[in-house]
User: Fold this.
Amino acid sequence: MGRFCLHGDHNRRAARNAFAWSCTFAIALSISYTSPTRAVEVEVNSDVAVQGYEVVSPWGDVVLGRRRLMATLGLAAYDLKGDREPMGPSYSVLMRMRVDADFGAEGREYRYSGPGDTRFVPGYDQRPLDLMYGYVEGRRLFKGWLDFRVGRQYTSDVLGWWSFDGGQVSITTPYFVQLHLFGGLEQRGGFPLSTGRFSAGGVWRGSESQVGGPGTTTGANYPSYQGRGHAPAFGVALETNGPNWIHGKLVYRRVYNTGSAWTGPFLAPGSTELETIDETRISQDRLGYAVTAFLSDFGGLRGGFAYDLYSEEVTRAFGNLDFYLGKKATVSIDGDTYMPSFDADSIWNWFTHHRITTAQARAHVRPHRRVDLTGSAGVRLWMTDGDPAQYAVAQCTAMNPGAVAQCLQYGLDPSFAGSDGFSRDEANRETAIAPDILANLGGRYRWHRGRVDLRGSLQTGVGDESVNRGRRAGGALSARQSFAREVVWLGGRVSVYNWNDPLRPHRNATSFGYVVAPEYRPFKDTTLRLEWEHNMNRLVGQRFRVLGLVSFRVTK
Assistant:
């Protein structure tokens, strides 16, 4: 593990400063609330994962080597009033910070050296420190009618995971309905203590400090990299709150883009600068609903949808039926459809994209209290512009009948006259559906201090090599056993997977891997874990990963 200390001065400084500040805050909370006359509950929990991994070529050369530290620190103080009432008002403070630093990066990856630089990555963060969440919460105010949160917070609903800085107010009525109102700024990358993982996809955003703003020499070399800008957001949700056998939630969310952004990769007419836009505009505008219902003796129902008001498309719809066959078996039918959606600033809104629809049946059986068996089978439908089995041949034939074989091997020659004509003809781009067959099997056997799991999966196209997009199949056997009264654990996994691509037979391979993972639990809620992972196949040779994990939780 000493190798982790040899690289990344900036990252080490960021991690050291962040955790010094966080630990100081944790100690202050603990000192403030140790009086036995108060009912304040303080909790501190942390996870620290250190890993090193290498990707080795088939010839033995290390083509990628990294050393990474990922650490989180969570702090919470509950019932700040001190005089706890079972159904009375309560106030809490919760926060969690994260450092995710990669010490293996080369200097040229984050320092720009000129237009010919092939290793520079705009927006590369040497100090990846973010505040995952941090808010003050009040519950059951005004005789239980009002809850609130102020600060950085998450929401999770049918529209997906989302994070914003602002406030949320929840009004609980006696009529089985709860109203949520929220607003603030969407969390985005490029700002201090922030990450862009929760913003809409399709736009590459970050701090302009490395590449400059619109019109700068460095920035013009990366027109696809957009500068950061505040993103005002607001929303409303209605949620059932009462009968425990049914739950539904209707949610609406709108986010705006602000600041300057490039609108294309080319210079504006009669100008030496790229075209830009600098006004408030829509980022995302979405509406969704989800419902869950359970009848304990019969089964359950889940369903929902998400609608993108900007693209005027249902981007997600799903449904699930569970049937309880006694106490030992459950049979389910699932269906979902997904359409990619993007930030309104993204060029991907201009390109064609289609749905991915999946339908499958599942079963879970517990024939014995120590044994679980699961299985599923279904189909996944991919939609494309034009028939993949015939499109390339037809396009090459139309463009240059005398060089079809050469065209199929090397692609269209840009000098061919009218090379865009075939693809622009709507008659050649009728929607086609290509199915995949899906299957999964699993089993688990448990005993007092351990278990063994077996998992297998298959995904394959349908038809001969002219239409079959390939196959992926394999499985994994894993086991876990405790020793010394569950203080020491030993886990491991062995896996074999094979994939086949008729269009690129030289990429066919079988991959073998194994993991050895000892674990030590010296105290309650404290875990020390080490993982050694080794994967190998003929395409990439050997891949290694070493992971060390420390996890603890303290309450008072």
Q: What stands out?
A: The longest strand covers residues 62-78. The chain has five helices and 26 strands. Helices lie at 9-32, 217-220, 391-399, 404-410, 421-424. Confidence is low (pLDDT under 50) at residues 1-37, 213-217.
